[in-house]
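Hello Y.,

Per our agreement to keep a running log of every chain we model this quarter, I'm adding this entry. I've kept the format consistent with earlier entries: sequence first, then predicted structure.
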Amino acid sequence: MRYRLIEVFVRIFLWIVVFIINILYFARMMESFPDWLETLLITAGLSIPVILVWFMPSSMAARKVNTGLRYLDKDNDKAVRYFEKYLESKMLTDSERKNALRILGVAHHKRGDDEEAIRCLNQALEGQDRDNDLKVEIMGAIGIIYSESGEYEKAVEYFDKTFDIIFSMSKAHIDKSILIQVVNAYIRADNKEKAVMIYDRLLMIRGFKRDKRVEELLGI
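Predicted structure for the entry above:
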């Protein structure tokens, strides 16, 4: 956070410099300056906006994560490298770092390295983050990874924690295909009754709609 504040002050200072240079130029006050100084100021006035847009640390970090997202699913090895470079930035807030670790974990999973995926996701859960939406995404992702690897008991353990948060927030935005995976994990963990109870509670949340495929799996 300290680095982010430093950058903010630097940005403000540089924009003030650009503003002053423009005033000097349009007021024709530069005409009295030596040629070398006038050239220097005009060059600075043109260069500083480029620096602010492209070469400030936060801008460079943003380009890395955006490039990583473009490679996700297309070339997950490259995606991992860009996310790892992004995480090296000292400009990230705690929430940005945790979200990047979540995406990095997903990228590792997509490239078949579930051990590293779980490590990244668990690292994203460390600390006292109050962002419950992010916690839901992280724990849900861990549960899906365990489910897809056939470790249904572990999957259910994380799904239980995920739904505890969802019900405490009274809002649920769950992709139907993901919900089917979740329900299937409970069934395979021999805990169908818990899946039925969770589905019934989800139906009580405003905006959550019934799904015939889920109900067929649950036999309701």
